[in-house]
Amino acid sequence: MTNQDTKMTIEDRIEQAREAAHQAGETFGKTSPEFAVAMEILEELHQESGHQRNAQPKNSLERFCDDNPESLECLLYDT
Predict the structure, then answer these.
(1) Quick one: how far is CA 3 from the chain centroid?
(2) Which of 14, 58, 67, 78 has its CA 20 to 30 A from that of 31?
(3) d(CA 76, CA 6)
(4) Model pTM?
């Protein structure tokens, strides 16, 4: 892994994988092993992106509402 790779965001890596999958589909066909591998890499990057979003720590209000969902600060209203 180069220094440039470590500075890339997950979104940048997803975009590169999307382009690589498109190229593999155009070059080898959508039923080729090359396309399947490229799509698998793209799917794994999407999953990692989701894990990173879910891994963000909760703030103090979110933790409070988890423990006290009936509290006035935590009630949600439809408008």
Answers:
(1) 22
(2) 14
(3) 40
(4) 0.60
